[in-house]
Design brief:
InterPro entries: Acyl_CoA_acyltransferase, GNAT_dom, N-acetyltransferase. By secondary structure, the chain is an alpha+beta fold. The chain is built from five helices and nine strands; from the N terminus they run ββααβββαβαβββα. The protein has a single domain, classed as Aminopeptidase (3-Layer(aba) Sandwich), CATH 3.40.630.
């Protein structure tokens, strides 16, 4: 049974369950949604990420979560926390927030709503001292949201990842610390 980690006005954020891979593959694993995330994944790759996420939640009490739309009960994305695990990153092991929203729910504010809840969770129960977010320079909507949330650009942590196409190869990082996040909250 999934744990409900957070609720927002329109979303329930719940833990990943073993049976979620097929639903994620159907709703979130599309060319448009995955365009800046390395492209569409094979089902076995999604299953492996889910296993890793479930293990992280069991070991450390945080992971990626599914965003369930309250009005419809449908999976509309995922958002949550993990450890920076790219072998090319300059900050391995840092707490990282990430998200994606299915295409038919874009431009409704779901990403911001979910990320705010994930940051509250990260700086609350998880007790992270700071949280980073990674994206490509070309993923303007993502880094604009990072800036809107009060995160600041960390050029010193940027890196190139040849596993991505040239336009997405440069990974840029933003960061926010707990004190800054708490000061920005009403």
């Amino acid at each position: 049974m999934a744990d409900i980690v957070a609720e927002t006005e329109r979303l329930v954020l719940r833990t990943i369950e073993p049976d979620d891979a097929v639903e994620q593959d159907r709703l979130l694993n599309t060319p448009a949604v995955m365009a800046r995330l390395g492209g569409v994944k094979e089902l076995h790759e999604i299953e492996a990420k889910h296993a890793k996420s479930m293990a992280l939640y069991a070991q450390e009490g945080f992971s990626f979560l599914f965003m369930i739309e309250k009005a419809s009960g449908e999976m509309v994305g995922h958002c949550g926390l993990k450890r920076v695990d790219n072998p090319l990153a300059r900050n391995p092991g840092d707490h990282e927030v990430g998200w994606l929203v299915r295409e038919d729910r874009w431009r409704r504010g779901y990403a911001e709503e979910a990320v705010r809840a994930a940051l509250d969770w990260g700086f609350g129960r998880v007790d992270a001292p700071f949280i980073v977010a990674l994206t490509s320079q070309t993923n303007v909507p993502s880094w604009k949201l990072m800036e809107k949330l009060g995160m600041r650009r960390r050029v010193d942590l940027d890196f190139d990842d040849p596993a991505y196409p040239p336009e997405d190869r440069t990974t840029i990082l933003y960061s926010i610390d707990a004190e800054t996040w708490h000061r920005s909250r009403p």
